[in-house]
Amino acid sequence: MNFVIVLVALLGSVWLLAVIEGWTTTGRLRLTAPLLSGLAYLGRESIVPRTPDRVFFETAPVLLLIVAVLGAAVLPLAPTLVIADLATGALFINAALAYVLVALIMAGWGPNGAYAMIGGWRFLGQLIAYAMLIVMPITAVAMRAESLVTTVIVGSQDGLWNIVYQPLGFVLFFIAAMALAFRAPFDLPTAPGELGGGVDAEYTGVRLAVLRLARLTLVITLASATTVFYLGGWHGPLLPPWAWSLIKTLAVAVSMLLAGRYLPRIREADLMRWCWILGIPLALLNIIVVGLLVLVVP
């Protein structure tokens, strides 16, 4: 039963996010826009490149969607509303999302096209750097909760959310989540102005529909992880716990969409340099500060 409820909540969140994305792009708020877009994709011809690696080409969009759903499986909407309350849930999220890299490398290699391949290799460097900014803030969150169980992590924020307890960790995790979801200004794997879509360039029809559904699902999963780790999860007044989880998740997801509209795309060399020179030292500093707070503050 939990599986069905969480899946429906995930699909509903993706639908609303697609509506909001369409509104920010076209200026028109239409609840039927995702349905119309989906039907339009289904009506288009699915063109296959001339000499593709067919296994990689066909598997990449589906794998990206599966990875996004797997990550959401350990994120609770309420104290008892979670698909899998694993003892190592926080680490499972990081492990599952690592396969985003595999999916994008496959999407870049499969079509045997120059732009797609460049996009896939760009994401390789991007994820190698920013994956550290996913796991290191999670480490600090687990230190405070003294557990890797996601429901326990949310419970540890009953009196004080982690965004207040460790704001530096929140900022680093949010930036890394945007990089992992390859949203602007971290959209180097797609880069419409440079690569003509990059890893998306050779996909059309149903395949492109699945790929874009997977991208939105990935944003929702990362927004939900941000909510669980830093925004108190289901904690909030008056409304049911699941409602607070969904409201916070959508707020974070929308902020990811809007941030890219006002920030220029970053050069890949600068993106890597900022992470290794600035991001990782700050993540280490965050772990040290949280460790001291855990020791000193009862």
From TrEMBL:
<keyword id="KW-1133">Transmembrane helix</keyword>
<feature type="transmembrane region" description="Helical">
    <location>
        <begin position="275"/>
        <end position="297"/>
    </location>
</feature>
<feature type="transmembrane region" description="Helical">
    <location>
        <begin position="216"/>
        <end position="236"/>
    </location>
</feature>
<dbReference type="GO" id="GO:0009060">
    <property type="term" value="P:aerobic respiration"/>
</dbReference>
<keyword id="KW-0812">Transmembrane</keyword>
<dbReference type="Pfam" id="PF00146">
    <property type="entry name" value="NADHdh"/>
</dbReference>
<dbReference type="GO" id="GO:0003954">
    <property type="term" value="F:NADH dehydrogenase activity"/>
</dbReference>
<feature type="transmembrane region" description="Helical">
    <location>
        <begin position="90"/>
        <end position="111"/>
    </location>
</feature>
<feature type="transmembrane region" description="Helical">
    <location>
        <begin position="123"/>
        <end position="143"/>
    </location>
</feature>
<feature type="transmembrane region" description="Helical">
    <location>
        <begin position="163"/>
        <end position="182"/>
    </location>
</feature>
<protein>
    <submittedName>
        <fullName>NADH-quinone oxidoreductase subunit H</fullName>
    </submittedName>
</protein>
<feature type="transmembrane region" description="Helical">
    <location>
        <begin position="55"/>
        <end position="78"/>
    </location>
</feature>
<keyword id="KW-0520">NAD</keyword>
<keyword id="KW-0472">Membrane</keyword>
<comment type="similarity">
    <text>Belongs to the complex I subunit 1 family.</text>
</comment>
<feature type="transmembrane region" description="Helical">
    <location>
        <begin position="242"/>
        <end position="263"/>
    </location>
</feature>
<dbReference type="GO" id="GO:0005886">
    <property type="term" value="C:plasma membrane"/>
</dbReference>
<dbReference type="InterPro" id="IPR001694">
    <property type="entry name" value="NADH_UbQ_OxRdtase_su1/FPO"/>
</dbReference>
